[in-house]
Amino acid sequence: MLLAVAPLTGWIGWGWVALAVFQLLFGLLSTGMDAPVQGHRELRIAAGVLVVVTVLVPLLVFGVLSGWFWIAAAIGWIGSFVLATDADGTHAREGKTA
Asked: What's the rounded Cα separation, in Å, for the pair 79 and 90?
């Protein structure tokens, strides 16, 4: 919520809003995925990684953490995407063989 209000108060620039929108859209797209039994563990881990990234991003934007943590945030985004895609692909392959 603070990230949405912060540009209006001048705490941060408007460019950071794009990052917040990206995080929001990726989170919403991830929640719409089917949760298969076989891929459930991967989706659960991907959700946990996104939780960590969601905490990291506002701390980075407001300058609480060092800029080096952007690497961790990027790895988290990519890792959660790979885990979610792998779980979805496993579900699709199982559906074709069953």
From this structure: 16
* Nearest C-alpha neighbor of 30 from the set 47, 45, 54: 47
In whole angstroms, give the CA distance from residue 84 to residue 72: 18
Position 92 scores a pLDDT of 54
Alpha-carbon distance of 32 to 29, in angstroms, equals 5
Return the residue matching tokens 């209000």.
5
pTM (2 decimals)?
A: 0.55
Lowest average pLDDT, out of 1-10, 22-31, 32-41, goes to 32-41
Nearest to 19 by CA among 6, 33, 32, 10: 6
Q: How far is CA 2 from CA 8, 11, 36, 73, 94, in A?
A: 10, 10, 34, 19, 42
